[in-house]
């Protein structure tokens, strides 16, 4: 899966009274700043099931970008004067980079993304995420479960693409992630299809022989899509 970019998720809640200001800032300031700093894509989702409410999905060259001069500069109050006030209304934050370990239905790029090939990008109006914690000794079992048990259970659900991802790389400088180590990110054609498949997906987790110690489900719709 090295041909595919790192998937980076930022989750948070936003004070409802500040949500409009947050989205305006995110759309016109923060999102474009991330693209300018080298992010391949910036996609903002809002959850219809699970929490926290905001699920931002990014594709990036790797977690080293968090420590680049451009990324650091664009996060300063000198560059972004609105940032301190906006973040004052944000809570329950987590920032997590993941490597893509296995995929279903994802076309792999012929050239590296760094050379401009964006084949295999995350591109759906609805996504679900399944955060799963398991001991590192079960890594092979998690991979086998995704390719066999999960894939078999969801075969008739109508999903577009699915990715098994594992937390990896350097931690975000703002905070060390507390999210589960494994992530199943699924793209759907619409919200109804994703909602109909939720019981099936959770049943596939319950039936797994993997000793999952944490399960966190989210279903979300896209409200912002910026691409580089």
Topology:
Blueprint: E1 6-14, H1 19-36, E2 41-49, E3 54-60, H2 69-73, H3 83-87, E4 90-104, E5 126-133, H4 139-153, E6 161-167, E7 182-188, H5 191-206, E8 214-227
Antiparallel strand pairs: 1-3, 1-4, 2-3, 2-8, 4-6, 5-7, 5-8, 6-7
Organism: Micromonospora cathayae
Protein name: NIPSNAP protein
Please characterize this protein's 3D structure.
This protein has 228 residues and is α+β, with helices and mostly antiparallel strands. It has a single domain (6-227), classed as Alpha-Beta Plaits. Helix content is 26%, strand content 33%. An eight-stranded antiparallel β-barrel has the order 1-3-2-8-5-7-6-4. It is globular and about 50 Å long. The two termini are 21 Å apart. The model has no long low-confidence stretch (mean pLDDT 96). This is NIPSNAP protein. It comes from Micromonospora cathayae.
The rounded Rg comes to 17 Å
- What is the first-to-last residue Cα distance? 21 Å
Helix content: 25-40%
What is the number of helical segments per DSSP (H or I, 4+ residues)? Answer: 5
Q: What is the fold named in CATH at topology level?
A: Alpha-Beta Plaits
Low-confidence stretches: none
Labels describing this entry:
228 residues; alpha+beta; Alpha-Beta Plaits; eight-stranded antiparallel barrel; 5 helices; 8 strands; globular
């Amino acid at each position: 899966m090295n041909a595919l970019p790192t998937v980076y998720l930022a989750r948070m809640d936003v004070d409802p009274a500040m949500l409009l200001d947050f989205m305006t800032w995110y759309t016109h300031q923060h999102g474009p700043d991330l693209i300018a700093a080298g992010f391949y894509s910036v996609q903002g989702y809002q959850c219809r099931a699970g929490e926290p409410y905001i699920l931002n999905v990014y594709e990036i060259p790797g977690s080293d970008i968090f420590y680049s001069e451009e990324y650091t500069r664009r996060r300063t109050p000198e560059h972004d004067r609105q940032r301190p006030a906006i973040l004052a209304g944000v809570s329950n934050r987590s920032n997590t980079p993941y490597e893509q370990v296995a995929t279903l239905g994802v076309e792999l790029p012929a050239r590296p993304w760094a050379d401009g090939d964006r084949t295999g990008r995350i591109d759906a109006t609805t996504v679900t995420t399944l955060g799963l914690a398991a001991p590192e000794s079960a890594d092979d079992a998690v991979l086998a479960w995704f390719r066999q048990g999960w894939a078999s259970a969801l075969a008739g659900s109508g999903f577009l693409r699915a990715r098994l991802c594992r937390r990896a790389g350097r931690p975000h400088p703002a905070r060390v992630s507390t999210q589960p180590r494994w992530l199943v990110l699924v793209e759907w054609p619409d919200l109804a299809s994703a909602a109909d498949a939720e019981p099936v997906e959770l049943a596939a987790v319950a039936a797994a022989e993997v000793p999952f110690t944490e399960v966190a489900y989210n279903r979300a719709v896209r409200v912002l899509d910026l691409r580089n």
